[in-house]
Write a structure and sequence with these properties.
The chain is an alpha+beta fold. It is built from 3 helices and 9 strands. The chain has a 6-stranded antiparallel sheet with strand order 3-4-8-7-6-5. Strands 2-1-9 form a 3-stranded antiparallel sheet.
């Protein structure tokens, strides 16, 4: 069931202030450490302008106006920049923020974290460790029963794969691995 946007007058932030998720990140990510390497021109050819702005230039998309904030299908969310599974729909929850929120990554090694102190706030920026795509931020205000974390992720950085397609993908991927 979809949550409705909280009117600015009742939100925790002042009406003119953006939520912590709604601010772009200014973390310097060492892209030389990511296995997937492409130039800005190559990324621009592969991604939409919004995907490029968010995933490659650490921007953010508007809340409640993105593809996955109110998405409830069963499956796995991959990085929009590589074949890297990042979040399972079973770990998605309604945070009321307007962005897709997850309690944990599918594989912690695939999601790297960096402290972001821009805008006078301390936030933990998360990005795909495989391709360097900016995903969003992680906050300590998630459901306590699931570990207390809220991965607030931009839809523009994700690609959804239905469960049956994901399971077929994992079978092919596993079959290709050397034994």
């Amino acid at each position: 069931m979809a949550t409705k946007p909280v009117p600015a007058s009742t939100s925790a932030n002042a009406a003119s202030e953006k939520s912590a998720c709604g601010l772009p990140s200014h973390v310097a990510i060492d892209m030389a450490k990511t296995p997937v390497q492409r130039s800005d021109a190559e990324w621009q050819a592969l991604l939409t302008p919004l995907q490029f702005k968010v995933a490659r230039k650490q921007g953010t998309e508007p809340p409640f106006q993105n593809a996955f904030w109110d998405h409830h299908a069963d499956g796995v969310y991959f990085s929009g920049c590589s074949d890297t599974p990042l979040f399972d729909s079973r770990d998605k929850f309604e945070s009321g923020t307007g962005w897709p929120s997850f309690t944990k990554p599918i594989e912690p090694a695939f999601v790297a974290e960096h402290v972001d102190v821009s805008y006078g706030r301390r936030r933990v920026e998360v990005h795909c460790a495989v391709d360097g795509a900016h995903l969003g931020h992680v906050f300590p205000d998630g459901p306590r029963a699931q570990g207390g974390l809220r991965y607030c992720i931009n839809s523009a950085s994700l690609r959804f794969v239905p469960r049956a397609e994901y399971e077929a993908w994992t079978e092919v991927f596993t079959a290709r691995k050397p034994k």
